[in-house]
Each structure stands twice: as C-alpha cells, then as structure tokens.
Amino acid sequence: MKAKSGFLKGLNPTVAIVSKAVVILFVLYGTLMTESASSVFSSVKNFIIDTLKWYYIGIVAFFLFFVIWLLFSRYGNIRLGKDDEQPEFSRFSWFAMLFSAGMGIGLVFWSIAEPIYHFYSNPFVAEGMTAQAAQAAMRISFFHWGLHPWAIYVIVGLTLAYFAYRKDLPLTVRSALYPIIGDKIYGPIGHAVDILAIFGTVFGVATSLGLGVQQIDTGLAHLFGYQSHAANVIAAKAMCTTQGLTECRTPFPTNLILLIAVITTIAIVSVVSGVGKGIRILSELNLWLSLLILGFFLAFGPTDYLLNLFLQSTGDYVAQIIPLSLWTDANQDRNWQANWTVFYWGWWIAWAPFVGMFIARISRGRTIREFILGVLLVPTLLTFFWLTLFGGTALYLELFHEIEKAGETVLAVGQAGIVETVAIQHDVTMALYKTFEIMDVGMIGTVAAALTTLLIATYFITSSDSATLVVNTIMSVGDKNPPIAHRIMWGASEGIVAGVLLIAGGLKALQTASITAALPFSIVMLFMIYGLVKALRQENLNPIHL
User: What letters, b where the CB count within 10 A reaches 16 and e where it falls short, cover 155-170?
Assistant: First the structure.
C-alpha cells in the first residue's frame, strides 16, 4: 500500500496523489476564476440548504443519541488498547489537547458575536433585545457549541482508536470499515474513504483558519491602530451604498493573507516537532491562556450575574435539548437556520476526521466509557462556562446599559455599542474587542485584549499543525510519524486553501466549504457506526482480535 521509494515514500500513492490533485485544482480555480468560484460556492450552499437541511439536522441528532446509548451500554469497560494498557498522556494534557483541537479558534470568534446576534434577533422570541431574547441567545449558543459537536468527534475518535489500538489495524478512517468489507479496506473503497476524510479535514480546518485570521487582524488593528480588513469591507460597502451601486467589489484581503503566511509557517515548525513536543506544549499554553482570560472576566465582569446565568442557561439547555435537536424551522424563516445550525453541523462533521483522528491519537489506553465521558462532557462544560463569561458579559453590558436622559439615569437596553457593531454593522470580528472597550478597566483591558489575540494565534497554530499531522497520518496509512517533507507541504496547503476561500468569498465561502465537505463524510460516519457496533458485538461474544 505504501510507496517504498521516491517522493511519495512512506505514503499510499493513490490517496496522496488524488488528495493533492483535488487541493491544487481548487486553489487554481479559486485564484484564477475568483468570480466564478464565488458564484459556484453560493449555488452549492443554496442547493444543500434547500434540499438537505433535514438531513443535517436529523443525522447529527442521531449521532448524539447513539453516543449516549454507547456510554451506558455493556461495552463501556472495553479498553482502547490491551486490557492492562495505561493512557499515554495525563488527564490534564489530554483535556488540553482535545479542547485546543476541537473548538479553539471558532469558540473565541463566536463567543460574543453569536449571543449578541441572537439577542438582537432570533426565531424563538417575538421581540429582540429583551430579557427573553438574552435567555434564548444563550440557549441557542449552548446548543450550537454543546454536546452535538462533541458527539460527532466521539464517534470518529472512538471508532479509530478502537480499531487501531484494540484490533491492531492502521490508525486511519478506512479501518472502521473492516467489519463490513474485510481486507477490501486496502483497495479502492478504502482509498476513497481516506480521500474523503482528507477533503473534509482540509476544508473544515480552512474554515476555522479563515475565521481566526480575521479576528487576529482585527485584534492587532485594535491594539496598534491600523485599519483592519473587516473595517475596510464595511467602509467599501458604505461607499457603494452612498453611490447607489448594486454590486460592490470586496477589498483584497492583503492583511489576512500576510497573517496566514506568518502563522502557517509557525504551525509547520510545530507539526515537524511532533505531538509530544510542539503540539502538546502549545495545547497546554492554550489552556493556561484560556484560564487566564476567563479569570479576567470573572474578576472584572458582572460576576454574580455570570454565575447565575451559567446555571440558568445550562438548565435551560438541558430542558430544551431534545426539541432543539429535532427542530428544522419548517414553518418559519429558512435563512436563519441555514446560516447558523446547518452551518455549524456541517462545520463539525467536516472537522470530524481531523479532530476524531487527533483525539484517537492521544487516547490510547482509556476505556470506552472514560473516553466518552471525557470527550463529551468535560469540553462541553468548559465551553458553556466560556460562552457564559464572554457572551454573558456582553449581554449584561447591553441589558443594563444606563444613559443620562433629562437629568435622570435610565436604562438604554441594546445601546452599549456591541449590538451596533455586531448585528447592525456586521463586524463580528470586533465583538470581542468592543466588549473589552466598554468594560472600561483601563490598561488591564488592553492586556486582556492582547492576550486574547495571542490565544487566537496559538489556537490557529494548534489547529493547523494537528490537522497537518492527521492528513499525513491518513496518507501514510496510520503511521504516527509521517514524512516531514509532506507535513511541511500539507501545512502550507491548509493555509493556502484558507487564503483562497477568503479571496473567493469570505465568510460565505468558508461556510459553503464546511457544509459541502461534510456531506460525503456524514455517510462514511454512518458506516463507521455500523462497523463499530458489529465489532463490539463480536468482541462481547468472543473477545479476540479481528
């Protein structure tokens, strides 16, 4: 299966060549035919949303229900490895690496912008910018970032870890199909499955990198006083509106391309050093920086309100999780769910081969029950706390904003400035920094803004280097230490794809890429579940290796 000499030495030639060809063709198309690419991206997204929204909603709900069943099943004590094998990493390092890989950039990007968007308007309340709208905003945000994405990661990660460490098969997606097709996993079907996994990984991660680099640019612009790309886009649209133009050319994202180049280079250096060094160290740095920034919001934010909001919103989420999981917005505005829930579900599925394989890589020696509890619950609770402290602080500033009017102090809900920035000017990258500004804690706020920008950059690096390692592991049929030259090449490729998506359509192109990449891999995930259940039942009857 692996080439024994030449440039592709150590890799599966079919998977490597086809994967590279797909990425190269995409890059050429996006750079040479930008307007056509933008139009195609829009058409593809509209087609999927119009015809397959029910599928995305239904399949992700099924994934969560399956994981909960497996957690309480008789298979929970089976170890991902030999019966007496111990975990490779400590729990702290394990949690740090899986959280950094799974949520990082996107969570920082949307932690304030999403609750504020839903506070301004959402389909669950009649009127925005009210106490009811604030509660619905937190419930929706918890829903999009809670158990569902981590259930997706559990399925892929657990399946890969089980077949790799329990059944001694290659650590690659094709191995999950062994109970179904046997040794045919080493043929064309296996090649196709691995290529789909690489396709989903590259475009799913490119979505996150594209979001992250926009916020890094805004953060640096806020700190050093230059004009960010997001600000340039808003200014260009305002000028077009003033001049009565129906079409407006988006400014070229020069700042973003330069930042992608710099940070991708750092990510390549990290991935060359391997999991035990660069990736582990940066992941732990991410977690410490995250805790420091959370501490800032607890110390200088509305602490009592935030703690009350955390408990209330968690309870609200638990009470509503089933109806939310199956809600398809059939009788209301179709665009809302297309832009939010379906985008998120597609994004998480597209990330699944990358995050799942990375989690499998660091989870050898844990039991199935321990794996599910750790991957499903711990990051979810930390994510909820994160969303509460970031988004809750912004909501508090908007709900309880006071102004002087006719000599009296009165409430002016929704007029603190964050809603104006996010929901009206549509500058989601500025939401975080606007919140720091309105908190008005002087130099400490500036330091917090700088640390948050650094955190986004380190999340960028860990997402990119982890994805690069996963892509090369797939191409090398499970080799934990794939060729360095190809790690460098694929690390650069992910940055290039993110840049092309930004040039070809910005956020809409990023959303389309993730939703499209998710479609074929979601079908692969169904076969993975079937293969896993079949293997577990065989082991329960006759506990020997395949």
Answer: bbbbbbbbbbbbeebb
